[in-house]
Design a protein that fits this description.
The complex is a heterodimer. Chain A is 56% helix and 17% strand. Chain A is of the alpha+beta class. Chain A has 2 domains: 2-47 and 267-399, no CATH class; 50-262, no CATH class. In chain A, α1 (2-10) crosses α13 and α2 packs across α14. Chain B has a single domain, classed as Rossmann fold, CATH 3.40.50.300. Chain B has helices at 41-48, 71-80, 97-106, 110-115, 118-128, 144-156, 174-189, 201-205, and strands spanning 2-13, 15-26, 30-35, 56-61, 64-65, 82-85, 162-166, 193-197, 209-214, 217-222. In chain B, α6 runs parallel beside α7 (174-189). Chain B is globular, with a radius of gyration of 17 Å. The A-B interface holds A 1, 4, 7-8, 305-306, 308-318, 401-404, 406-409 and B 37-38, 41-42, 45-46, 49, 51-54, 71-72, 75-76, 78-80, 82, 84, 86-88, 90, 92, 94-95, 103-104, 106-108, 154, 158, 166-167, 170, 197.
């Protein structure tokens, strides 16, 4: 009964219905992007609160490429600078270092994240199986296998207690590793510069920056570690000394920014960008509303006699509401298909794509939390909006009795 | 048994359309309602047909005050107890003749649908009305007379007690008009009740009773049969 009604009344204007659907599809893309980005930004802000609480400063590597190339060529000297710099940091600062290197394993790609102990003061990395690093993990003498945490996507390494050999492009050596824990799915850390972007650890191997590693520390590792180096419980004047230390040795030009200011700056500009997108989405929203209203109203008015006929044959006027809700539900599902496919394809592309330098967004499941929640929010919003428009129009339509126009008029 | 009882029926819309109208229809009778255009004959059909509830007075259908019926009950009455035949044969062009005739069955409950062999009823009805061969046609391929017979079949598919017909023969040639009138006579022979609005005195004369609507009132002008 309802499908017949939907087909012959609500969807009778095929072209206008298609145009409306297309407008709504473009609206869903914008609103989905907006919702997802806001959720990520909100989550990022929550996760990065500890940086503000610990008065952290974030390193931003602005070293000219030429300088980096020269230093890497002159490895002996620059590696010595790297080692002395680590000593200098250890003696004078509390800091969190996160070095990211890529590696290949046949066709499966993974990244090696070398982190120091303080990294865990800022980021809550959850373990799915096995256990996390202990203090001893960071004091390893260098002879025993390196304890590592393995991302849940790296099935080849996902055996707690087993040892493997991997090539670390940071140290330039083959390393013997021992898996002590498998990471829970979708462990991620928010980018300090763009808290709506995340680095996922599903395809990562996390290894500790041990005392013995610091003795063989090199320039390649340091250049990677300088970006996003977190120095905390200190003052801006103090972190500027780090800047000077590196500049004096012509090794790097690293600027430090207060995490608090950095985040505030991001959210100020983010709010502006978000507002522009919101305004744009509202324009599309109003165009869609207008098209839907026109389409529905014209269809109802033109079919008034046919609807009255159905009512005379036993349909209840209130069943027009049910038919409308069902129609809008179907329409919402259809409208959501492209954005859901986009979301799935995007996630899959990231899962199978090459690991970038920052190994960002390596998703293990097609639709992890925020992606799914964003789709759900969009679905609910569009469905409620469509139902609301329909209910208002049908209420207005039903105000005039559905009489059969017989011979007199 | 009184199928329809109307007491002190009044209706105003910009002007007084009906005032203090009263009449009743007995089961197994065929009544013609005549009157000039704009006198409110259609309004009476819409009120008896439970499509217009904006009136004063009382309307009893099968001894039930229709004002006491819920929306669902009213819909069920329209679906199972009433059948509408209009001057302009209102059919849904996108549906076949078969789908048009069976449309009222769509609004029955599943149990009600299962209790009746509608396919057999469809065949019998359409054979009686001479439209059996048209079941798979679309309405826009039919003549006016054929369309009206399809409307009649649709009105009867749920075997209603009361047929409300508004100028059912108004747009038909003599042959098709006779088919409809013969159908009505068969119906009353089976205990059904027919209320026909007509301008045609020849058609009116073939009814048991003639009611005239004039100056917002209904007058009984005779039993012609």
């Amino acid at each position: 009964m309802y499908f017949e009604f939907i087909k012959n009344i609500f969807a009778k204007r095929v072209l206008l219905t298609l145009l409306t659907a297309l407008t709504l599809i473009s609206y869903t893309f914008i609103s989905y992007t907006l919702v997802r980005s806001n959720l990520y930004a909100f989550q990022g802000r929550t996760e990065l609160r500890s940086l503000v609480a610990k008065t952290a400063f974030v390193g931003n590597d602005q070293t000219p490429e030429k300088m980096t190339d020269q230093n890497i060529k002159n490895a002996k000297k620059s590696d010595e600078i790297a080692r002395s710099f680590i000593k200098y940091l250890d003696s004078n600062y509390s800091y969190s270092m996160h070095i990211v290197m890529n590696a290949n394993l046949g066709t499966a790609e993974y990244s090696i994240h070398t982190v120091n102990e303080d990294f865990f003061n800022f980021y809550n990395i959850k373990i799915g199986k096995g256990h996390n690093f202990t203090k001893t993990s960071f004091k390893n003498n260098g002879y025993a296998p390196i304890p590592v945490l393995v991302g849940p996507n790296l099935h080849r390494f996902a055996h707690v207690g087993k040892t493997y050999k991997i090539y670390n492009s940071g140290t330039g050596k083959n390393e013997k590793i021992k898996v002590i824990g498998i990471l829970a799915k979708n462990n991620k850390i928010a980018s300090i510069y763009e808290p709506d972007s995340y680095t996922y650890f599903n395809n990562a191997i996390i290894r500790p920056l041990r005392s013995s590693d610091k003795k063989t520390f090199n320039a390649v590792e340091l250049y990677s570690g300088l970006q996003d180096l977190l120095v905390y419980r200190t003052s801006l004047a103090n972190v500027k000394k780090i800047q000077k230390y590196l500049a004096k040795r012509s090794f790097a030009n690293v600027k430090f920014y207060s995490a608090k200011n950095n985040l505030e700056e991001f959210y100020t500009s983010y709010t502006k960008r978000s507002t522009s997108l919101l305004i744009f989405s509202l324009i599309i929203f109003f165009i869609s509303s207008w098209m839907i209203s026109v389409n529905l109203w014209k269809s109802l008015e033109e079919e008034r006699q046919n609807i009255a006929l159905r009512v005379s044959l036993g349909m209840r006027p209130t069943q027009i509401y049910t038919a409308a809700i069902l129609y809008q539900f179907i329409l919402t599902i259809v409208i959501m298909i492209p954005v859901s496919l986009y979301s799935l394809a995007y996630s899959r592309m990231l899962t199978s794509g090459a690991v970038q330098q920052d190994s960002r967004l390596m998703l293990s499941s097609p639709l992890p939390g925020i992606e799914g929640i964003s789709l759900l929010i969009c679905f609910i919003f569009i469905f409620v909006f469509l139902v609301l428009i329909s209910v208002i129009l049908i209420y207005r339509f039903n105000k005039e009795p559905l009489l059969l126009r017989m011979s007199e008029k | 048994m009184s199928v329809v009882t109307i007491e002190k029926l009044g209706k105003k819309y910009k002007r007084t359309i009906l005032e203090d109208v009263a009449f009743s229809l007995e089961a197994g009778t065929m009544t013609a309602l005549i009157g000039a255009s704009g006198e409110g004959k259609t309004t009476i059909l819409n009120i008896i047909g439970l499509l217009d509830s904006d009136y004063t007075g009382q309307v009893l259908l099968f001894d039930t005050n229709v004002a006491d019926l819920s929306e669902k009950e009213q819909a069920h009455y329209r679906n199972t107890k009433l059948g509408f035949i209009l001057q302009e044969p209102l059919l849904i062009d996108r549906m076949t003749v078969r789908e048009n005739i069976l449309l009222p069955t769509v609004y029955l409950s599943k149990k009600e649908r299962e209790n009746v062999d509608f396919q057999t009823r469809l065949v019998n009805l359409t054979k009686n009305l001479g439209i059996y061969d048209l079941l798979d046609e679309k309405p826009n391929t039919l003549s006016g007379g054929q369309k009206q017979r399809v409307v009649a079949a649709r009105a009867l598919i749920n075997d209603p007690e009361l047929i409300l017909a508004d100028e059912p023969t108004g747009a038909l040639d003599q042959d098709n008009a006779n088919i409809i009138l013969q159908l009505f006579k068969k119906l009353i022979a089976n205990g059904k009740t027919v209320l026909t609005v007509t301008h045609d005195s020849n058609v009116a004369k073939q009814h048991d009773r003639i009611l005239k609507l004039a100056n917002s009132h209904v007058l009984e002008i005779g039993e012609e049969k």
